[in-house]
Fold these 3 entries.
Entry 1:
Amino acid sequence: MDGILTLVNFGPEGWGDDIAAGVLVTVSLALATLPFGLAVGFALSLAKTSQDATLRLAANIYTTIFRGLPELLTLFLVFYGAQIAIQQLAQMTGRSSGIEINAFVAGMVALGAVFSAYSSEVFVSAFRAIPQGQYEGAYAIGLSRGRTMRLVILPQLIRLALPGLSNLWLILLKETALVSVIGLSDILRQAGIAARVTREAFLFFGVACLLYLVLALLSSVVLSTIERRVSVGGVMR
Amino acid sequence: MSVPQTVSDSRELPPPVQKQTWTKARIAGVALLCLWGLASLGIALFLVSSWNPELFQRYAPQYLSGLWITVQLVAISVVVGAALAVPIALGRRSDNRVVSAAAYGYVYFFRGTPLIAQVFLVYYGLGSFRPELQAVGLWGFFREAWYCALFAFTLNTSAYQAEILRGAIENVGRGQWEAASALGLSRLQTLRKIIIPQAATVALRPLGNEVVLMLKGSAIVAIITVYDLMGETRRAYARTFDFQTYVWAALIYLGLVEILRMAVDRIERRLTRHLRR
């Protein structure tokens, strides 16, 4: 028992600090992906609810692709694809490419693409839940399209989309584990290294699982606080 | 024969609204569609230009065997997981606090941690208990990456399916149970004839999504050296450094997921045919 405590503890003997650094990487990757994924997802949902059939089709193709590909494959496509593209570009310009694709950025792009595909669906169903009268009322009192969106629609949209988005956040947090495969030192990779060195695989992968659980628990606490905040002053429909 | 005359007084109607043919949305849509067209053309050209019959002959059978492994893995774990999901869902609904807490903990663990971490926990982690496992005679099972993957996937999907099942059963109103017992149906008959047909329509779409998620998630077994479709792709890429290996895999996965989605749509249309007018 003492041996286990030393192993997971901080300090030179223990792996606590390495794994804590992994937690930081996991959380920062998820946080960095979030705004990018949300923005693209929102733009996609606008395109999907547009009156124009071509715009809807273009957005739906994006969703079909990124919801249909395995996340791991998307990650590899981005990681290796970008590397090859850069090499080709370097050959064309006649320079040797010293550029390495950052695993963090590749993870951000791949996970962000997947997140935006799913979140666009959440936004679309939230848009559909807002009655047409809200737009008509806003136009009737002379608000422009932009102000209608910002002052009337968005506040309601956030309230409607938040449960779905919270769910997607929890999924995103778990999917960051895939980035360990392309070499980013997140929780899972650090746990894997510790497991290989100490030969205590069950202990360290168990710790990794527990850390993901703790992160999920913390996020659901934060998210439910936000949800309560946002729904203050909401009209019961 | 006289043709009935339809009187149309066009002077009374307002002039037809002039449709704006090239709105900003239309321009953006066409531009994006062109972009997609160019991208798919680029991929097609890339595949044609890097077409290599030797490569194809060498790796096509391997891709097929990988595809078969993927399908097997998903099918077995979803079916066995469905069987496991029933007692877990019942446990979640149980009045016994201990049983429902245990079921809740199980579901929370498997839904709250990444699938890849669970696979590692089983494949690498259970190796720590080798003497114990050998003593019970289970070591032969957990030594194989394939069985470890199957085990982890089954447990994982059973947790998700249990939640889907529970949601679907709770979705059926209490009145249905009461009406059935008033008619003198037994609990099992009620479940089979009243509850499950109604719950199935609710559960079908999330279940279909779960199968799609499993199919996509199954790609990670490639990391623990199971040669599924993703594993074969990685092997082919490692040997040839040819990017088209990944493109082919992407096309196959996309095709599989689309087929699944269409199948779910078909079944849903069949199950809800009484709701349509």
Entry 2:
Amino acid sequence: MDQKPVIQIQNLKKSFGQREVLKDINFDVHKGEVVCIIGSSGSGKSTLLRCINLLETPTAGAILYNGSNILSSGNTHKYCAKVGMVFQQFNLFNNLNVLENCVVGQVKVLKQNRKEAEERAKRYLEQVGMLQFINARPRQLSGGQKQRVAIARALAMEPDALLFDEPTSALDPEMVGEVLKVMKSLAESGLTMLVVTHEMGFARDISDRIVFMDGGIILEDGTPDEIFNHPKHERTKAFLTRAMDK
Amino acid sequence: MEFWSWVSRILEQYGSLILEGTGITVLLAIVGTAIGFAIGLLIGIYKTIPIKSSTPMPLKILYKIFNFLLSAYIELFRSTPMMVQAMVIFYGVAYAFGITLNRLIAGLFIISINTGAYMAEIVRGGIISVDKGQAEATHSIGMTHLQSMSYIILPQAIRNIMPAVGNQFIINIKDSCVLSVIGVSELFFVSKSAAGATFQFFPAFFIPCVIYFVLCFSITQILRYLERRMDGADTYTIYGTEPVINGADTLKRGDVK
């Protein structure tokens, strides 16, 4: 795991008007690492993830991808294609069926030929257990199924890293398990993952590292054992007590 | 009974002329709606280009200037009657350049840019109505604005605005009659000629009344059909099997594998 970092965040800041949501964020994600970001609502977790995927433009700082700062480069499309995102609200393309959802990016962005793209899409859909549904439209699927397709869509781009923005928060409790199961198998397969989550059990079991955010800064950054069993800060302790109680 | 005999006499005498006029009316409506729709799409795409703080200044200024011109076009054409626009453009060109435009071409031009102004707003509304997450998802897989629009956003926006576009089409069938003021020989114009020649105004205008109704009514039905087709089937086939699942609900919570 001590390889060079895929993504490096340096002095990242983000303000919405007067409100400073991210204040000087620094951390690295290494290849093959699974990092979970935890923290209470409004601590800036999602904003951080959205900044990394350039859905929000950071106010200051640098995001290095394989060593080069993408905030100063003109063409960010290639970077976006290689750092995938799984959304809380799934955001499957409503006008396309399941297969096309996983094919369109490969064909249009990666310029893959259609036949290979379909093969690849089917392979990933099978991995998330959705191969049967390739002809279905998003509106015909349940939340858990949609999220699994969304994961397959992101995987089909063969990304260097995958960002998850509270992937199970919009799901009915009984569907959370099926999505976490898929994510767990991805983590075990060596995919680089950065996960914003409220699923503490999941974070503890599969993370290599946990980042605890509070009030727009990273308060603590350590192994699951360090964070869950020996938290250094009072706020971390308080948060974990509250989160575990639920 | 005199009414019906006049109707049949006018049809006999002016039938081919009325048919031609109907053809011109349909042509005006189709071309006007199609070109207007294309104008609307282009403006809609342009108006939703994301301008970031990292965009270079000259580009930003250029964008703003062109954006202002587009807004001026939209407001100008939405705030004046098409009848007046027709007069101003047709006689304005003659006055300024000494050119007499072909009346049909002038008519097609006017109805197209007039429709374009309305369509621009309809399309913009359609794009706004598509969930923001869709655009974010296209961004997250590296699509450009144009790709995102072409493959994901506009197909959904267009589906959403179909009723409004259909409305515009029907309005164009009827309102193309105002182009008679510059002598476009569409349905109203030829009916007026027939009325003027026979002095039988009621029968002469009863005929286009029926024709307009039939045109609009059948187009409404065609559009409804198109909308249903765009929605696609409510069923889907399970991959690797043949039977069609009726009502996706049966599978909704079904466990996979």
Entry 3:
Amino acid sequence: MADWDSKSFRPSRRRRSSGSTRELLVKQAKPSPQLQALILDNGAYTIKVGYSKDEEPRLIPNCIMKAKSERKRLFVGKQIEECRDCSGLYFLLPCERGYITRWEVQKPVWDHVFSKNVCPIEDNPVILTQPLFNFKSIQDCIDEIFFEEYEVTNLFRCVPTDLAYLNYIRERNFNKRHACVIVDSGYSFTHIIPYINGSKFVRAIRRLNVGGKLLTNHLKDIISYRQYNVMEETYVINQVKEDTCYVSEDVKKELLEAAKPLSRNSIVRNYVLPDFNGIRRGFILDPNKTESEDSYQILRLNNERFIVPEILFHPSDIGMKSMGIAEAVVKSIMSCPIEQRESLSKSIILIGGNCKFPGFKERMYAELRSLLPDKWHVNVFQPDDAATYSWKGGNALLKSQDFRNNVVTKKDYDELGSMIIQERFNNFMFDYRELQTQSKPDRDQEKFKYLSKLKSGSIFGKSDVAISIENTKDQIKVDAEGENSNSGQSEKDELSVEDTGQDVGIVKRSVGRPGKTKEVVEVVQKDIKVPEEEEENLCESIDLFPFGTNSYL
Amino acid sequence: MTITKGAQRGSTRLKENEKLRVIDDVQRKRRQRKVMEMLESDNYHDDPHADLVMSKKVPKFEDNLEQRTNRNKKRERTVDYYQFKYRKNFQQLVDEDRLESEMKQRPSYMDIQCEESQLPARHFCAVCGFLGQYNCLSCGTRYCSIRCMETHVDTRCLKWAA
């Protein structure tokens, strides 16, 4: 079904929107012969690997572990199952912020994955996933390892969300121009990628530096502060997180519930920690049974259960300045062309391991519903197993015409060199046209402002005033239809800057004359910026913040 | 009733507070950065095998690659080869990416990062995790009650403050 026209993904020739629909109809008629392939979704923490004929992939930890109990052995990937005592595991992870930097770790793990008893390549074509904007030197190394070391015949590299997109449109029998937003929340980061006309809309892609690793480490930190010192037990606490954490629908209400005494508290859970003697994996103690065995080591979890995943929605809870996942999805949708926004909000797909928190989907829906214009349909879809959804899309890719058009053979690699084949991979489902038109400002959009009755206005006692913080550079713009009723009026901004350490001014809005709006905003901006700049200078120093202050503060 | 000059009334708590060491913004930011680094780290503890002298008994990873045995032996490379050839830290990679993206006129890794949030930050008590509306005077950490404040002052207040 998902047959793209071949030339659209080559950098040299660009697709004409009028021509491709006709071509699609022609190509659909051709039946595609069954191809077998090895699909490897190379997650930063878990590798999902299997042949295309398999129903489910195998999950293999993408790391080498060292145990305290077995001093002479390294545990590569799945071998950890042979380890008796998983306390105090030491992790060697190949990825740094999601990008492979430690080849001395990645290579042995791949060797393990492709070994005889796991998943040998055996001349199958290989579909490999890589993070968005994978760095060039990493791609060079991947190509070298796969073509020269493993001697694969065919290699195809793509972003995991591409596979998820293909899987989604095939499952639903949508046509390949279907617009959707994919939210991929993994171990190292969360990506928000809108797909328009079958390719990624580059300008609207967002990355949030919050992933499962950060959540686990945060949980580890607060448990260590409040109960036991578990700073060395990343492996166990990750399981605690998976078993007990959930996303609440209303944090304020949930906190009130959690504050109740134990007898009436529906949130508190006693978690039995593994002792690696009789209990290999911890579990939640049945709340109905009051008596428990003395040998159990109990970890009591109360508000930690929902405060930890809350970081995804409000990174400011741990002091990061970045916007939360729902806000970023809205931002991303609003950066897309005006005519696509409404259809984008109709299919928002949540994938990646973090989506497995119970209640995640419901919370996403609630937040998006309140942030997006009320005339739009909001539809959030989460597959049954969010972590393996991309892997399953490998099958859809295999059946598509693109696969055969874009796959790189060993011969190509030898003849063309890695530069050309990287172009081919990186341009797959990538729309460069819109980047060229970027310079022209969209005049229609500028007229409207987003009068947001943001849900957060009611958070923690500030409910009486509709508050929104404004930044001239990133004003959220809203579709004309949604805000037509407001276009007659305009807002006059009143400023009250608080001294309490908030760097950004808080702008209250009330109805006023249209002409004045801009001036006032500008004046306001100047007022705020002066103290800010003095302070920020230090933050911009590269020594202090090698990745820029945004990623930390 | 008159109050003599020497015996002015006042609270001992306020006097105590004056003695407090207040951490300035620069240090608070540095501290925040350390917390973020901790949250991004893979391990908290040191390598438990670091003091081990690796012997020959340790399995070599190349051992389990059977499929390659009948192929060209020249191609066989050790892990060190890749590590040496592609050794770059994350910062170098990001810098390279920025240069490349400028050439190709595409967004780079840094460009797609989320902007700052438009929503006000919420504050949670660092000790118990419930809403905390008060600031610690010396370090700015949030707490919710006198009890949590005391715990905080006794434990983490000046931790990480160089």
